[in-house]
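Hi everyone,

Forwarding the result from last night's run.
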Amino acid sequence: MTNDTQKTWRPATQLVHGGTTRSQHGETSEAMFLTQGFVYDSAEAAESRFNGENPGFVYSRYANPTVSMFEDRIKMLEGAEAARATASGMAAVNLALMASVKAGDHVVAAKALFGSCRYICETLLPRFGVESTLVDGTDIEQWKAAIRPNTKALFLESPTNPTLEIIDIAAVAEIAHSVGARLIVDNVFATPLFQSPLALGADVVVYSATKHIDGQGRCLGGVVLSDEKWIVDEVMPFVKHTGPHMSPFSAWVLLKGLETLPLRVAQQTSSAAKIADFLAGQSNVTRLIYPGRNDHPQAEIAKKQMTGGSTMLAFEVAGGKEAAFRVLNALEIVKISNNLGDAKSLITHPATTTHQSIGEEARAELDISGGLLRLSVGLEDADDLIEDIAKALKAV
């Protein structure tokens, strides 16, 4: 079975069989190679392995058979030439940005970012001589105005965390390429099943595999996907010398997660749409944000670049933080957690958790109010979830 053959498979088949290699034992499930290093038949074999004449594994900080299977499988799904797996989603974001810039360069990023992503752009990059500018990601003119001759990377999430804004990826990619910059897209909320940033013109895609790819709250992981030359020339040396590589155990768990990804995401999205329709009719819900609805502020862009809604939605309850906390504390099935993409429905209060660190002024700018709640819909029965949420809303 060749890689070329596997590329013609449809996503569900790729996610079960793609990239699989088997040992001499012919195991059904992918083997987990829990090893730090590898041995060689001779000193000459070691030399040829290290100088690249003989392909193979050298050290699990560089590459590992189980991790490589995960990388091969996810790059098939994404339509990427190459991928590198990392220990977490934030390691992937940091890797993608750090491998794109050097001192004296400039980054433009959307303001609507996860708190840790904003920290990298606003605090970490400037420490190393890289300036950054944050813009309203939905305003293409702001992207254009922020570009400088030394701009080397543009970075965005779409849909954004937690307000689910949709950014026109193709339009931003055109701006990036006009100055020779790379567009990096965090595609976590859309999943690779509903949005293909590379096909829309993006140069790099990052995921927190911790979310939908695992989907069952078991391990951390991340991945960076792009063209082979950039991965080999820029990303691989960074991974080799700084050590953010994914563990073989996490890679094995994530391979198992990929097998059921289409089934889980389809069910979660169906339930999310049903819950969104319910919330739209509640008098004490003052704002509902769901990319699959026609009343979403960027509904037309969502239809153009996404093939499905989302497993995520956000809603605002009347009464601010106090009312939001009453809703959270009244829920029984839906659990309070800052994670997402899980088989269990999870809800969080962004202003005091995921976006607490960005400060009150930045939250106000992003419309993250005290009454805003972010819901990640799981695999429970949708009617049970609606009944749970309806009961909790009565606490408002």
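The chain is about 40% helix and 15% strand.

Cheers,
N.
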